[in-house]
Specification:
By secondary structure, the protein is mainly alpha-helical. It has 2 domains: about 45 residues; about 220 residues, no CATH class. It is about 85% helix and about 0% strand. The protein is built from 9 helices and no strands. Helix 4 packs parallel to helix 8. The N and C termini lie far apart (about 60 Å).
């Protein structure tokens, strides 16, 4: 009886604590979301000097977009090759058309990999870069110096990053899709797993141009998530170098979760 009484007291105590924990977590998340909206409101103000904005915009396009092309091409080549191999070995059979491997490779690359999965990969590279850069500027008081000089630091630092990444993301998506198809042809010509004519027939079968635009639209939305969320965590960091590393990790994790969450709704809306 003592054991059951103690268990009941603990259970009752937990039920009393749970609502408080939920309220605290909800308050924390709503406060963070409110700070994010305020920061984005400051960031999307009209730049004070358009020439300086254009200069930083081009710099961010090069740093965030152009510098990401090699890793995008490398990953897409091998993923396209692996998808084609898996489709040929495990899916295609005498009961299926010869073009199944090429068709499924094209659909996977266009619908999910080149947009969603590639943006998840870029959230680790680009997101940590943005968060660590802004976090370092915050802890070294460079952002405070801009505020003292009367500069809107949020618009000066964050807006070019968001605009630059959103501009370059469609190019990265097209490069990813094209290189994935090149990887599939590599398995056909080098690996001799399937005839290149069958692969070409599958790539051309029932092609829907809207899938390309859908991939570009989704990736542009994901680019905004990566740039804005990473900028928020870096801009609002407090403390020293340890907190900068933690902010970079939080930025990557939060961006990845938001990309996966929004992928469900965007796919449903655009399909």
């Amino acid at each position: 009886m003592v054991f059951f009484d103690l268990f009941w007291l603990l259970l009752q105590r937990k039920t009393d604590i749970k609502p408080m924990l939920i309220i605290k977590l909800l308050k924390k998340y709503l406060t963070t979301f409110g700070k994010y909206l305020i920061l984005m409101g400051r960031s999307f103000s009209v730049p004070e000097r358009m020439r300086m904005f254009a200069k930083r915009y081009i710099k961010e396009m090069s740093q965030l977009g152009v510098d990401s092309i090699p890793i995008v091409l490398l990953i897409s080549f091998f993923i396209g090759a692996v998808i084609c191999i898996q489709m040929k070995v495990n899916i295609q059979s005498p009961w299926m058309p010869r073009w199944v491997s090429g068709y499924t490779t094209r659909e996977i690359m266009l619908l999910e990999f080149s947009s969603s999965i590639m943006c998840l990969i870029l959230s680790g590279k680009v997101g940590s870069n943005i968060a660590s850069e802004l976090g370092t500027m915050r802890v070294t008081q460079q952002i405070d110096a801009l505020e003292i000089m009367g500069v809107n630091s949020a618009s000066f630092l964050i807006l070019p990053k968001i605009a630059g990444l959103m501009t370059m993301m469609p190019t990265l998506v097209v490069c990813s899709s094209a290189m994935g198809i090149v990887g599939a042809y590599g398995t056909a010509y080098i690996g001799h797993l399937l005839p290149p004519d069958d692969l070409t027939l599958g790539l051309q079968h029932a092609f829907n141009p809207w899938f390309v635009w859908m991939s570009i639209i989704k990736s542009t939305f994901y680019a905004y998530i990566i740039a804005s969320v990473s900028s928020f965590f870096g801009y609002t960091v407090e403390g020293g170098s340890v907190e900068v590393g933690k902010a970079s990790t939080d930025a990557v994790v939060c961006s990845s979760v938001l990309i996966l969450f929004s992928d469900v709704f965007l796919t449903q809306i655009l399909s």
